[in-house]
Amino acid sequence: xxxxxxxxxxxxxxxxxxxxxxxxxxxxxxxxxxxxxxxxxxxxxxxxxxxxxxxxxxxxxxxxxxxxxxxxxxxxxxxxxxxxxxxxxxxxxxxxxxxxxxxxxxxxxxxxxxxxxxxxxxxxxxxxxxxxxxxxxxxxxxxxxxxxxxxxxxxxxxxxxxxxxxxxxxxxxxxxxxxxxxxxxxxxxxxxxxxxxxxxxxxxxxxxxxxxxxxxxxxxxxxxxxxxxxxxxxxxxxxxxxxxxxxxxxxxxxxxxxxxxxxxxxxxxxxxxxxxxxxxxxxxxxxxxxxxxxxxxxxxxxxxxxxxxxxxxxxxxxxxxxxxxxxxxxxxxxxxxxxxxxxxxxxxxxxxxxxxxxxxxxxxxxxxxxxxxxxxxxxxxxxxxxxxxxxxxxxxxxxxxxxxxxxxxxxxxxxxxxxxx
Length: 421
Prior knowledge:
single chain; 11 strands
């Protein structure tokens, strides 16, 4: 089974890191690769395409590169990332060092608390598949002058794709998800959106006095928060202002051959709330007071996703196995989910998840012991605590995860190169 799994995740050449280490040797492999890059004989291999399921029944396209290409891409990233990090704007959070999804959510919460009440929730159609190679390379050339580096970047973009039917096709647009370079290159392309908003009057580049003058004249101010291709634009103005800005963003994205999804790009008010990066952000009255605050909760879709995950695990672990095998699969998944949603108003959701977990395991144990009475099952697996446990571990209890508040770190989050300097 392990060998088959390795074959599925290997590149088109079928080589894995362990096979290279055993047959060739790491030192010799790196030496050969270094020589190929120096004499410019290195050529990337096509990526192996794999389709993985998304929510809603759709599929996400991943590209699995060879070990050799991964090593070269990692080296390219070490060269390119510090260059482009010097240009990236603070509104961008995805796939950047020292930046987290929680930073992006905290900024949205802060801005919507300061009367940026209309939100454009952006959705880009097939972002990673449709980025124009020409427009992307133009942006790379503007900052990188080394022709060897440029040739390598272009070669990786143009590497073919071997689909699941075994047919090879050319790659004329996009940066395949799954490669080491793809997140950086997508940020380079999508920074056109960040720059457009920053340079537009009323954006983050507008000073405080000018923003106040714009408010007095009835003109909007706005701020962008982007995490990879997920973004939202907060508008201090009217719904009509938000609609006009949505159209401007569509024009800016068209310069790199990207399109907004008209069905999924929504304009909402903070009173209605929005879903962003797994969180639901909404303003409402604090119970027992007349004051209104913006709160962050785990989104319903995120809760449904972890419940579906638990249900799938209960099906995958056969009842011929001990309860410990099931708990060993469920606990890491639920613990990681709760850790992500800890900095928010999550206790009620954790309590609901706790109830669901108990009953999910109870249904599994009933299938395992169809002829055993309830009391006997409880004495065997629960004891006096009424909580499922095996000899080695007990079911993870979500309500033991204390909730906290994530502190907004501001627009100037240091990079590793700042610390080195």
